[in-house]
Design brief:
CATH topology of the largest domain: Rossmann fold
Number of helices: 12
Distance between the termini: 28 Å
Strand content: 15-25%
Number of domains: 2
Order of helices and strands: EHEEEEHHEHEHEHEHEHHHEHHE
Number of strands: 12
Bound molecules: NADP nicotinamide-adenine-dinucleotide phosphate
């Protein structure tokens, strides 16, 4: 088990730093800003990294903290940072190898944080960067166009609740799977057709879809090809890694070869349907943070944050909660303002 130390991250010298009261906070490096964290988003990547599951694609340096997303206030700037004023409220990512946003202070590359949407609180903003970015990237990869019929799995989750709203904004007709408990709620987010997985098997109901956003992996990735039209697209956030994604992730040729072999049945399935399959790993891009800010400020999407509040000292509980897979929106750890 990795010890959680909310007060430290990449600790260097701090004596001359103007932010008071924290003897061992990090010092921003070249091109970095130091952020006083107000909220940190927790995602499945956190427990996957901890378990070593998906270790070939979630590259992690040990020991590590938790969290990939943050919102907070810029309190210091490293050399070569022309953007961001001290005191600005920002949201964004830290590099994946970091997994370290559950900390009172975080040093992040200036290019990976943006001014927060003016109409959100810190909790909502912390839930946005990873989830919003991966959904934008998934639908870009799918080539989603207005009028498309899209199936989004896990409509009540962090990804699903954002994806429903974004797909509607893009003009799609949205089908989503969820439990009875969340059915009305996801309808309220904009889903046109709710498939209650406790009552029905979506494979008996939907067919000829243009796109499936698969968040479940396993059998669901394969079943997606049974419900799309010929020429449609299956975009997975949890299924086998295709070679294009493996290259984007910078995986070495041997790992790529293994992944390519493991995905052979899926390729066959895609070929049979003349369909496209893509695994989409979230890659931090500032332009997507800018898009998220615009979308939220324009009221086109609303960040959905699970109502359970976690203090920094119970970040481990946040992970356990995440692993149960019952969260409604993104899970956030709250830091003192
Ligand atoms: N590739 C990437 O970069 C990337 C980035 C982010 C996430 N992901 C992946 O995307 C997936 C979703 O992430 P997330 O953060 O949205 O997860 P999450 O918030 O933990 O998802 C929880 C939700 O899933 C629903 N759910 C559970 N089983 C279901 C089922 N059989 N059918 C439909 N809904 C079901 C639950 O709703 P009920 O309570 O109603 O069942 C709950 O609302 C994860 O596998 C994650 O690893 C990948």
């Amino acid at each position: 088990m990795i010890e959680f130390r909310p007060e430290t991250r990449r600790v260097r010298t701090t004596e001359s730093d103007p932010v008071d009261g924290w003897p061992d906070k990090p010092k921003p490096g070249r091109g970095e800003v130091l952020i006083r964290v107000h909220a940190a988003g927790v995602n499945p990547a956190d427990f996957l990294a901890e378990d070593g599951k998906k270790s070939c694609i979630v590259k992690t340096k040990y020991p590590h903290g938790r969290g990939l997303c943050i919102s907070g206030i810029v309190v210091a700037k490293g050399a070569n940072v022309a953007t961001h004023d001290l005191g600005n409220a920002v949201f964004g990512h830290v590099p994946k190898v970091g997994l370290d946003t559950c900390a009172a202070f975080v040093s992040a590359p200036a290019a990976q944080v943006r001014e927060m949407p003016a109409n959100t609180g810190f909790r909502e903003a912390a839930g946005l960067p990873l989830i919003g970015s991966v959904v934008i990237q998934a639908f870009e990869r799918a080539g989603l166009r207005a009028g498309d019929h899209v199936l989004i799995h896990e409509g009540g989750g962090a990804v699903g609740s954002f994806a429903i709203q974004y797909a509607k904004f893009l003009g799609a007709t949205v089908f989503t799977t969820t439990s009875t408990e969340n059915a009305d709620w996801v309808r309220g987010l904009g889903a046109d057709n709710v498939l209650d997985y406790q009552l029905v098997d979506y494979r008996d109901i939907v067919h000829d879809l243009d796109i499936v956003l698969d968040t479940l992996g396993g059998d669901a990735t394969f079943s997606a090809f049974d419900v799309i039209r010929p020429g449609g697209a299956v975009i997975s956030l949890f299924g086998p890694v295709d070679d294009k994604a493996a290259r984007r992730l910078g995986l070495n040729p041997l790992v790529r070869q293994v992944l390519w072999f493991k995905a052979r049945d899926l390729r066959r399935k895609a070929r049979e349907k003349d369909a496209r399959y893509r695994f989409v790993p979230m890659m931090p891009e500032t332009r997507h943070l800018a898009t998220l800010k615009e979308l939220v400020e324009a009221g086109k999407v609303k960040p959905v944050v699970d109502a359970t509040s976690f203090a920094p000292s119970s970040a481990t509980d946040a992970l356990a909660y995440q692993e149960k897979g019952r969260a409604k929106g993104t899970i956030v750890v709250d830091f003192a303002g």
